[in-house]
Structure formats: C-alpha cells, structure tokens
Amino acid sequence: MLDKIRKVHIKKAGICSVTIGVINIIIHILIITQIMPYTWVNGGRSGSFELARQTSLSSIYMTIFHLTNLA
Fold this sequence. Notes:
Layout: H1 2-6, H2 10-32, H3 49-68
Helix pairs in contact: 2-3
Transmembrane segments: 12-36
Keywords: Membrane, Transmembrane, Transmembrane helix
C-alpha cells in the first residue's frame, strides 16, 4: 500500500490540491454573486441566501488558509 502512495509525485499532488481549491473558491463566488443557485451547494441544506452566503464565505476563508499553508 505504501508503495502505491509513494508513486504519487508531490508536485502533481500539490497542483491538484491548488486546482481543487481554486475551483472551490470560484463556485462559492458564483454563489455569493447569485449567479449559481444556493440550493446547488452544501447539500441543499441552506434555508436562505444569507445562510448560504455565510457558509460560502467561511469556505472561501478556509480554502485560502489551506492554499497558503501548502508551501
């Protein structure tokens, strides 16, 4: 099992992580700007736009924190 894990190049894993983070930020920006319906994210659990906006903002903050700590 460890042999398979070690075959993953660390640079490729970092690029994938950054790409997923950027996509996450873009999706949540689309939610905040009301281009994408808020019921499409967070499992549809947000009862209003304000709750979805708060969740999206915290998700953006956590993603930025994660991306800045990758280096």
